[in-house]
Prior knowledge:
Elements: E1 3-7, H1 12-23, E2 27-32, E3 43-46, H2 52-62, E4 66-69, H3 76-81, H4 83-104, E5 109-115, H5 130-149, E6 152-158, E7 160-162, H6 170-182, E8 189-193, E9 197-198, E10 200-202, H7 203-216, E11 222-225, E12 231-232, H8 233-244, E13 250-254, H9 266-269, H10 279-292
Parallel strand pairs: 1-2, 1-4, 2-3, 4-5, 5-6, 6-11, 7-10, 8-13
Antiparallel strand pairs: 9-12
Helix pairs in contact: 1-7, 2-4, 4-5, 6-8, 6-10, 8-10
Amino acid sequence: MNKIFITGATGFTGHHACGYYNGLGNEVYAAVRNHSPSPKDVRNVLCDLMDAEALMVLLEKIRPDLILHLAAQNHSGQSWKDPVTTINTNVIGTMNLLEAAKNVVPHARILITGSVIEFNPCHSTEPNHPYGLSKYIQTLLSRSWSSFYDLDIRIAKTSNLIGPGHSNGICSLVAQKCLQYRKGDREGFHFHNVLDRRDFLDVRDAVRAYDCILQKGRKNETYVVASGETHTLLEVAKELKRLSQSDLPLTTQQFKHKPPVHYVIGKLENLDWYQTIPLEQSLKDIIEYFKQG
């Protein structure tokens, strides 16, 4: 049985990750702040990634075999409003975690979760947004610490995660609006560009992918965690309207076609990972979650 330390345990992906690893019989330590509620049957531990000294004391006490780093400021729009918090959370928080691991549990396998939309200097000379810049620095930092200090760090670049649970992702927001419209709320849903294309992956498949990377992946390797297919926001919104039997009005600022972006997931598939939950099932589960909520 492994001890696993999960940051961001109270978040959307964190809830699913805690439940998954608990179901496998692992000793799960869920990092929470201010006694926030977290999944049942796991060990909640107060943790502030900005407090480097306290974090080191905490890891000394737990001595985890695995570290799954999910804590992040994950909203690109919010990063424009508050870039300092975004950089501090995604970069300094990660550095503090890696330093604590280096000094206390250098043997631990560590997975850092990045993003497929992080800034890529090979494709562009200008960062896309503060969030993309922060995730690029996080990835560069993680790869560097792995090389500098011989830490067993793996990196996951993840697409848009969807599925049941509390989420501020576009699918969950549209699903809630569909159900509210059926109940009498006459406000529609407005998109910046309804023809934007995105890769959507169920969060439960993503957690399985993270486990595959931790168990079978290679040190200092980067794995794309995605479905490999893209869909327009309009396609997804129409399906959510159909599943919820809602006539929610949709408006858009732009109606601009964009070429599909295909993320290569071959390295992940080589670890015997495969997608098990299709998009339609994920959308059904989102609707059911908010119906019950």
